[in-house]
């Protein structure tokens, strides 16, 4: 059952427009780069851009899938831009980033799903800004182990793949994906590199139950996922699936405690949390934990 669209007070944010936000917008525009911040209508765009961080979205701005919750345009994508990795690296250097996040639309039209472009972006950034840490938020590559291996071989500091929602709801909102395929991807990432930092995220408010959220956390810990993000689903427009529930800040705090109890190295849980929110802090927590474990 859909709920009232009016935002609760705790979800209201200031309109972006600070000096750093405007400077970053100009850098991205000059490089003809896309960001998931803009394409997915992220509510944190003002905070993150003002602090000088952004999530680059490669492989174009048209997705071959049409997930029921997503605002990114779907259809037939254009040709790949062979200069995109260099342009991403240039932007990272100009922005003086210490931590860069790279994600993409789904490109089921490509033989490797775009994995080689992710790898090229990582290599280009390493060459231009060696000290910058890199997180990749990857699609499922249609379950291809070879595509995942290409990305892992490039050595990202954090391998992120979002489970997005609970098992029962998954097929309704992600008809071209597969819940178990996503878990298998995270399993393979750890098998490829046991020391890799893996991460996943989910939205709540799509019709799931509290116990189903906990079950999803259990599934993620069963594949040794290190980091977790939990945020409120915000319906981008009437085209997307209706919102089923507003979760309160207190409920997000409870979910954070539950997740930490299960053993996640770091948990970002809150109404406005998104996949790359405070990604640098989460990675630092995971690597600090690994150092202590050794």
Write up what this structure looks like:
The chain has helices at residues 19-30, 36-39, 45-50, 84-95, 115-128, 145-153, 167-173, 179-192, 210-222, 249-262, 279-293; strands at residues 34-35, 55-58, 99-104, 133-137, 158-160, 197-204, 227-232, 266-269. It has 294 residues and is α/β, with parallel strands linked by helices. It has a single domain (13-293), classed as TIM Barrel. Helix 4 (84-95) runs parallel beside helix 5 (115-128), helix 5 runs parallel beside helix 6 (145-153) and helix 6 crosses helix 8.
Map the helices and strands.
Blueprint: H1 19-30, E1 34-35, H2 36-39, H3 45-50, E2 55-58, H4 84-95, E3 99-104, H5 115-128, E4 133-137, H6 145-153, E5 158-160, H7 167-173, H8 179-192, E6 197-204, H9 210-222, E7 227-232, H10 249-262, E8 266-269, H11 279-293
Parallel strand pairs: 2-3, 3-4, 4-5, 5-6, 6-7, 7-8
Antiparallel strand pairs: 1-2
């Amino acid at each position: 059952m859909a709920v009232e669209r009016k935002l609760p007070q705790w979800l209201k944010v200031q309109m972006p427009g600070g000096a750093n936000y405007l400077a970053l917008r100009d850098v991205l525009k000059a490089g003809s780069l896309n960001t998931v911040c803009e394409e997915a209508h992220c509510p944190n765009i003002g905070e993150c851009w003002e602090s000088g961080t952004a999530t680059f979205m490669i492989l174009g701005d048209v997705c071959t899938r049409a997930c029921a919750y997503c605002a990114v345009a779907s259809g037939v994508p254009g040709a790949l831009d062979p200069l995109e990795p260099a342009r991403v690296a240039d932007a990272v250097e100009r922005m003086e980033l210490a931590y860069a996040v790279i994600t993409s639309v789904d490109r089921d039209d490509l033989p490797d799903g775009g994995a080689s472009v992710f790898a090229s972006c990582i290599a280009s950034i390493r060459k231009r800004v060696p000290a910058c840490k890199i997180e990749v938020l990857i699609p499922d590559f249609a379950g291809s182990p070879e595509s995942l291996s290409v990305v892992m071989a490039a050595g990202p500091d954090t391998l992120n793949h979002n489970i997005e929602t609970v098992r029962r709801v998954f097929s309704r909102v992600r008809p071209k994906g597969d819940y178990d395929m996503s878990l298998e991807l995270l399993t393979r990432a750890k098998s490829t590199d046991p020391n890799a930092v893996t991460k996943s995220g989910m939205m709540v408010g799509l019709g799931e139950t509290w116990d189903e959220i906990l079950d999803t956390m259990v599934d993620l810990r069963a594949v040794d996922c290190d980091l977790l993000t939990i945020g409120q689903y915000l319906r981008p427009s009437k085209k997307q699936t209706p919102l089923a529930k507003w979760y309160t800040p207190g409920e997000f705090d409870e979910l954070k405690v539950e997740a930490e109890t299960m053993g996640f190295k770091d948990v970002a849980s809150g109404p406005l949390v998104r996949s790359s929110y405070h990604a640098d802090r989460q990675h630092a927590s995971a690597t600090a934990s690994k150092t202590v474990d050794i």
